[in-house]
Amino acid sequence: MEHLVDHMRTSFHSVHEPTCGVCKKHCRSFESLREHLIGPLPKQECKSLFNIRGCKFCLAILDSPYALRVHQDRCHLSGVNYGILAHMANLGLRDSLTIDNGYARGSQVVALACKTVGGGSDRSLDLCARVCIIDENENIIFHSYVKPPIPVTNYRYETTGIRPEHLRDAMPLRQVQRRIQDFLCNGEPMWKIRSPKGGKARILVGHGLDHDLDQMQVEYPPIMIRDTAKYPPLMKTSKLSNSLKYLTQAYLGYDIQNGIQDPYEDCVATMRLYLRMRRQVHRRQDCPLASDPQNRNNFASWRQGELERMSPEEMLAISRSDYYCWCLDSA
């Protein structure tokens, strides 16, 4: 029991962790759960049932093979249907950035992605040259080529599709930065956005957003950022980030970033991943984070004797997550 208490003190098990639908094992990430179910050394009982009734995308165990077929028709998504919106994106003709001062209903979620070209004498300096923002319905809010503040020495055409003529009359970086910053803050001062509720500011979704925001020189509080590269359930068992290409293949069921890459395609993938994580159904808890003041003494050393007399189920009931689960965005 002493070792179990020490384990619970450092593991931060909670209702928000990916959990095996057969044996109820708690895993730190979906990759860890995938290894438990179908990895090189799976638990055989769980593997056998998963092979019959398990979804290979969300890793859920369904009630029957028929229920699995119905579920996978919804869980397996198809690639982006570009249509007229994507065609306009490729032309750089979309700009619907507006500040509504919070009058829109519900929390507003947008996804952002940018593509970079090379600068500097060694051509390795990343410069933002194309940016896209979409809403929850995958509609393009903003798409523009961006004119970097210093000369471009490598257009990286093989992956970006960007040519000199695209940037010649493009919107300057400073103007893009100001418009996106104002749009995300949505009329709120930065000090209020940093508060737990974030006010009227928009939730920003993306992959590797630290890099993207840095390239655009946009400052935005981490409390309003949902980064698929840093979300613990979507990371590797080694706690390193997965690529967006891998996450899209593994959890959505289609390929992206083949040949010339479009930021719209990246936006759609990150938004779909975010919505899939947000729609998970977890038991509601008061004060769901281990960092909440009410939970700081749950596994305090002075409670060792009391904790050792608890059952594993009782300890799990007072254990809390050390990360913010995206399902809480829909609360």
UniProtKB/TrEMBL annotation:
Location in or out of the cell: Nucleus
Superkingdom of origin organism? Eukaryota
Q: Which Gene3D superfamilies match?
A: Ribonuclease H-like superfamily/Ribonuclease H
Alphabetized UniProt keyword annotations: Exonuclease, Hydrolase, Nuclease, Nucleus
| InterPro entries in alphabetical order | REX4_DEDDh_dom (IPR037431), REXO1/3/4-like (IPR047021), Ribonucl_H (IPR013520), RNaseH-like_sf (IPR012337), RNaseH_sf (IPR036397)
Domain (Exonuclease) ranges: 108-283
Any matching Pfam family = RNase_T
Give the family this protein belongs to, as stated in its UniProt record: Belongs to the REXO4 family.
Please give the name of this protein. RNA exonuclease 4
